[in-house]
Amino acid sequence: MISTAEPSVIILGSGTCVPSLKRSAASALILLDGVRFLVDAGPGTMWRLLETGTTIFDISFILLTHFHPDHTGELASFLFATKYPDPAQRQTPLTIVAGKGFSDFFGKLKNVYGSWIELAPGLLNLKEMDSHGPDVCRVKGVTVESMPMRHRDESIAYRLTGPDGLSIVYSGDTDYCENLVILAENADLLICESALPDAMKVEGHLTPSLAGDIASRAHVRQLVLTHFYPECDHVDLVHECRKTYTGPLVIAQDLMKIRIPAPFPGGVESFVPV
Questions:
Q1: Domains of the chain, earliest start first
Q2: Which of 49, 74, 247, 249 sits most deeply, having the most CB atoms within 10 A of its CB?
């Protein structure tokens, strides 16, 4: 079992919708002020959680950045698994936070799966954040802020700030976005999508140099690039990001643990031996 006393992030999935033996779809486990936050839940999330020694019953808060399957594809399976073998195993309510329209999205999931994804009364809470402006909620001692991103109507990024002021920002999918600069200002860690190399820029996604520019303008203390399509495996992502960003930089891998603050510039470790 991992300790929640040390603020850190474990990258569960650094990939996309493209099947890969190396990278699961988007997901991260954020440990802050003794709370475990699961951010996004793409295919492979529960498997990766188990590899860190974390069970689904250890998760009480899920934050979703948007509704694409590579970010939500394991949500129904997560809820279904929560019912086995005995619903009483979940003692703490599960809260799922997402952008505007999530209630409708979840209602459509229930149209498909019905009672298979329904939990006992009082054990499932849905929270919609405003996808058209800044919003904030509080989870125990952690402040969770969100702002809309340039990807889909419901797309939001999150900033989690502990009572000691440590802050972690998770971009989700987005194009270049002034809101991300604002949300990430002076953050201790920015986990930023960088879906494709600079030469292959597509609408709705960032590249290494664009992510680096956002990090530089926001004066973040450490940048983690993630959410890589296979084309990223054939270029020097560090070199591309260094065009615009000179601070501590990490290229995400599945099961990579990032401590906050970093024990040394860019310091990371694998959660499991490799």
A1: 8-256 (3.60.15.10)
A2: 74
d(CA 195, CA 227): 5
pTM, full prediction: 0.94
- In order along its 274 residues, the chain shows pLDDT tens digits of 566 668 999 999 999 999 999 999 999 999 999 999 999 999 999 999 999 999 999 999 999 999 999 999 999 999 999 988 776 678 889 999 999 999 999 999 999 999 999 998 899 999 999 888 899 999 989 999 999 999 999 999 999 999 999 999 999 999 999 999 999 999 999 999 999 999 999 999 999 999 999 999 999 999 999 999 999 999 999 999 999 999 999 999 999 999 887 654 545 554 443 3
